[in-house]
């Protein structure tokens, strides 16, 4: 093993030891998911892991490795930014922080599978940075019937987020989608408003919980992720992303 890989492994081991998940918080999250279709848990992740993830995101930003997020088939830039204004980078285990984060989410995946028998089989996630003024209009993360994204997760990385910082995620009452998907203009009841505070994990059902990100006043950092089930469309296995 060369010294670079040795350093990487040492750092990953130290971070892993510093960031255990609390079993009772996982239980609480799963209970909420069963009863209300969403959950958010403050201080779910240790400061050590959150700080390492934020440092990783800042390193990626400094080398211009984030790209404007697209939406489905719309790649017209202006149209996309009228719906969402974040820049993203997919996690790929390139740093100890990403490796440890993905390992913790793997543990969560196993626990959810054990409790709910829903056969989640993989997790994909990206860093997201919302510059001041950016938002993400109300949407659902997957289409019913074609749903391979089953449970959405959002982890926030923002230390000392002020109450007037904006950028809250608003969760709306679950809705059944029509044949054309979810109607973005229907009026629906707000269920929860989540501050993007460092260490908070939010989870919700991907195909039935509409949500939005309110305009942020400060630069806002997060990791959006999805537990997936394999979906095959017309016999073709749907690839990740
Ligand atoms: O960052 C958030 O609070 C939610 C992001 C989101 O809805 C998404 O990326 O699909
Ligand atoms: Fe979303």
TrEMBL record:
The keyword Ligase does not apply. Its cofactor is L-ascorbate. Residues 111-229 form the Fe2OG dioxygenase domain. It comes from the Bacteria. One of its GO terms (biological process) is cellular response to hypoxia. One of its GO terms (molecular function) is peptidyl-proline dioxygenase activity. Keywords: Dioxygenase, Iron, Metal-binding, Oxidoreductase, Vitamin C. SMART domains: P4Hc. This is SM-20-related protein.
């Amino acid at each position: 093993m060369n010294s670079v890989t040795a350093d990487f492994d040492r750092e990953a081991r130290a971070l892993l030891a510093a960031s255990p998940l609390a079993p009772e918080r996982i239980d609480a999250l799963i209970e909420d998911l069963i009863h209300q279709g969403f959950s958010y848990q403050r201080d779910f992740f240790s400061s050590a892991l959150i700080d390492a993830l934020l440092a990783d995101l800042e390193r990626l930003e400094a080398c211009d490795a984030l790209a404007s997020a697209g939406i489905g088939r719309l790649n017209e830039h202006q149209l996309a930014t009228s719906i969402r204004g974040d820049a993203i980078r997919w996690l790929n285990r390139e740093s100890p922080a990403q490796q440890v984060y993905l390992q913790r989410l793997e543990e969560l995946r196993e626990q959810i599978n054990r409790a709910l028998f829903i056969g989640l089989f993989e997790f994909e996630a990206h860093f997201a940075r919302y510059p001041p003024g950016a938002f993400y209009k109300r949407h659902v993360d997957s289409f019913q019937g074609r749903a391979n994204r089953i449970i959405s997760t959002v982890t926030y990385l923002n230390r000392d987020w002020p109450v007037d910082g904006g950028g809250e995620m608003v969760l709306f009452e679950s809705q059944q989608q029509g044949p054309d998907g979810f109607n973005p203009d229907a009026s629906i009841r707000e269920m929860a408003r989540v501050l993007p505070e460092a260490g908070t994990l939010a989870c919700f059902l991907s195909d039935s919980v509409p949500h939005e990100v309110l305009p942020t006043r400060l630069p806002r950092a997060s990791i959006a992720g999805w537990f997936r089930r394999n979906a095959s469309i017309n016999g073709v296995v749907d690839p990740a992303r």
